[in-house]
Amino acid sequence: MNENLFEILDEKDDWLAVNKPADLVCHPTKGDALSSLIGRLRLYFTDQPQVRPSFVNRLDRETSGVIHIAKNPTAHAEFQRHFQSGRVEKVYLAIVHGMPKESSGKIENPLGRDASSEIKIKQTILPGGQSAVTLWRCLRSSAAGAPPFSLLEVRPQTGRLHQIRVHLSSIGHPIVGDKLYGPDPNLYLQFVRGGWTAALQERLLTPRQMLHAATLTCISYRFWTGEKCTRTETAGIQFPRAESFRELTPTVVGTPCEVLSQREKFGLKIMRPDGAETLEWNAPLPSDMQQFLEQMF
Q1: Could you report the per-residue pLDDT of 193-245, keeping only the tens digit for each?
Q2: Homologous superfamily in CATH for domain 93-211
Q3: Catalytic residue among 10, 23, 47, 60
Q4: Which of 42, 88, 242, 279 has its CA 20 to 30 A from that of 78?
Q5: b/e per residue, 90-114, with b = 16+ CB within 10 A?
Q6: Does residue 178 have an active-site annotation?
Q7: What is the pTM of this model?
Q8: pLDDT in tens, 71-92
């Protein structure tokens, strides 16, 4: 049964990296153990009572991609320090409405709860709110005459609730399928009250938001030796113009480093010039996003 619980990207004594599918919550909202990722993790570790899984990062229910799990409190605390000190990089892929006028950009707008909305989780640009910074660049846009969609690479520099979704919507490029920050927030309420319908399909185009956590990189990780490492320049992420979107996966380029192991199916490990090790996990573009791109581009 364990092999059907989730897709494992990497597993070591202190951590586990998985590729979370869309439409799976991290924490339980129902009694069924299979309805949440944490429930599935507890099933996975049934025979290892010493393991206490906890999320290092989280994703929204409809967002797919890399999630990192610590197996014990010490590992969790160490990875959290990496997040807090800026030694973790996240790269997302998002399919958005419209075609940006610029090839790349930086969104720097504070975020907070939208007090005017009856939806308690809804966030908005809020002067005086929590600082939030998002970098983006356009990888591809639909051809002239076709419906305007674009594929963006997004790098959040902070980790606020719904940050990517709110920021992209604020510049006029909401994520395709986003019920809350797309064409009309009332679509979210319609979905909650009545489920997925033909009317929602017509407005939203896809059953879930087209957002995928493609890469998670932990820089200068030496937890197992206790050594202190200085931060070095991070490796660049290059997205080649593949003939098929099935080939659209990140590759590490540009930074002098010694590759310690060959790239496996999804991950790799590299050594910085200062001897500090970097951990990286990659999740391929999911089939629903591949299909959307191949149909619309």
Answers
A1: 999 999 999 999 999 999 999 999 987 654 433 333 333 333 333 333 333 33
A2: Pseudouridine synthase (3.30.2350.10)
A3: 60
A4: 42
A5: bbbbbbbbbebeeeebebebbbbeb
A6: no
A7: 0.82
A8: 999 999 988 888 887 888 999 9
